[in-house]
Amino acid sequence: MDQSIKAYIKQLVQEAIEQSASSLNNLPPGTGRKQYVIANWKMNKNIQETLEFLQQLKEGNGVEVVVCPPAPLLYPAKLYVQGQKKEIQIGAQNVHQEDKGAYTGETAASLLKEIGCSHCIIGHSERRQYAQEDDATVNQKAKQALKRGLTPVICIGETLEQKQQDQTEKVLTKQILGAMDGMDVSQVVFAYEPVWAIGTGESATAAEAQRIHGYIRSVLEYLDVQNAEKVSILYGGSVNENNAQEFASMTDIDGVLVGGASLQVDSFQKIIAVFAKGA
Ligand SMILES: O=C[C@H](O)COP(=O)(O)O
């Protein structure tokens, strides 16, 4: 990273720390930005469970509700919500970066679009860990998703070790600059998911998350000062019906990406209701 970027990032970190105190003063959430509640089911649920869940799930009342089931369930899920005329969107958990070809086991963005997906999660920490996806791959996948009309939900976040070594801002900056290379920031959604908070029951505090979201927005401003304010930045990591309200009250937290608590329709619906109040 060249020296001028390093100096700029240092300044951003300082500003984000200073701003975090003022942004905690109960400012209204998400100044006009879309509010999202996204379910990432990971490798859970079968067809019957999916349809039962979607049958019970109500619309978002101004919140963008996106359900991301495993790949084989995307099409039945889409057909079901379409048949019910429900404003619930269906998103994929992954996409391949190439248009088509000899990529066994992969799914093309064009096919996801054809079956009615609206969004695609990209760069989830589990993909980074188990499928060795790096920032360059995330960038290629996000470009491919956009090319085919899917909104990328780009996941970033530090590990526990990186947090303990005070590397959070540095790691996030690298992930953001890598993911956004040659891209228009206004076209994507970001999800800040600290790896240490995923599936552990130990979420970031809302204040911590707000400070980091403010920092992420500062880096987006560095890339595109005009559009950074429009980008929805979601928090993910042990969100549940009990802590959702605290996250929703933060000015730079524009929704949540929910794993475990999205598997039960009741708890997921309660999280949606929290964000619908502010939407
Ligand atoms: O994509 C969702 C995240 O990995 C969060 O999962 P979790 O809510 O089970 O911690």
From TrEMBL:
Residues annotated to bind substrate: 40-42, 199, 238, 259-260
Enzyme class: isomerase
Record keyword Isomerase present: yes
Catalysed reactions, as listed in the record: D-glyceraldehyde 3-phosphate = dihydroxyacetone phosphate
Subunit record text: Homodimer.
PANTHER family membership: TRIOSEPHOSPHATE ISOMERASE (PTHR21139:SF42)
Protein name in the entry: Triosephosphate isomerase
Organism name: Sutcliffiella horikoshii
